[in-house]
Q: What sequence folds into this?
């Protein structure tokens, strides 16, 4: 004997009941009852946000320490990187908060749009079918975004590490150039091409140019060889 179909009004009542029991639920007038119930279950919030912050913070710290180690090698020193701590750690954690909040807001906005699209395209789907389709969409989206987030994190942390290393070790009077690594080719970003062609510039100019092209993979370095006293060098 086949299963009896649940009347449409009963389905709506079930969805309203599910939605009303969810913590922190708030109806979006642009979504149907079914869409609001799906959004309340799948939106990015509390626990997911804290896990994301932990991941981003580890990435920032790792990228920061890697760049400090590279800077130490450039001035003839090696050894343990001591930071980030204090001012530097607070700055990185501020970036973590900013990035995590931005990712959360973007994800939830895109989730709403995807729910609207799915509900409009498949009005007769069950909640389970919608969840399956949305989870597949979520997996594809996160796989693409994860690489972009990782690259942005690395770039932001590296630029900040360079800035702090130069300031703390009194290297602001040295001339700087941008490394042509990766190589400049015909389809390189125009900002990259202009930077590499600048030649030697003051640190003030270099620092301002860094801010005009965030996450650029071309790192600034001193034009001439600099050697520091490794016992006194600032290590992060």
A:
């Amino acid at each position: 004997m086949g299963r009896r179909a649940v009347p449409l009004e009963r389905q709506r009542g079930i969805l309203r009941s599910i939605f009303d029991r969810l913590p922190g639920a708030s109806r979006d007038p642009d979504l149907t009852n079914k869409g609001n119930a799906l959004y309340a279950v799948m939106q990015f919030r509390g626990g997911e946000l804290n896990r994301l912050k932990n991941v981003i913070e580890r990435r920032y710290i790792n990228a920061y320490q890697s760049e400090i180690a590279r800077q130490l090698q450039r001035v003839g020193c090696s050894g343990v990187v001591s930071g980030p701590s204090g001012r530097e750690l607070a700055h990185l954690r501020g970036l973590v908060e900013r990035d995590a909040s931005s990712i959360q807001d973007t994800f939830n906005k895109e989730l709403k749009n995807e729910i609207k699209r799915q509900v409009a395209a498949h009005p007769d789907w069950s909640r389970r079918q919608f969840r399956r389709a949305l989870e597949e969409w979520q997996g594809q989206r996160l796989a693409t975004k994860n690489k972009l987030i990782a690259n942005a994190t690395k770039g932001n942390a590296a630029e900040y590490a360079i800035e702090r290393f130069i300031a703390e070790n009194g290297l602001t009077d040295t001339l700087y150039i941008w490394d042509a690594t990766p190589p400049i080719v015909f389809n390189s970003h125009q900002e990259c091409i202009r930077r590499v062609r600048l030649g030697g510039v003051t640190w003030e100019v270099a620092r301002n140019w860094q801010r005009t092209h965030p996450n650029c993979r071309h790192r600034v370095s001193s034009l001439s060889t600099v050697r520091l006293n490794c016992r006194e060098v600032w290590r992060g």
About this structure: Residues 43-171 form one domain. The radius of gyration is 25 Å. The CA atoms of residues 75 and 230 lie 8 Å apart.
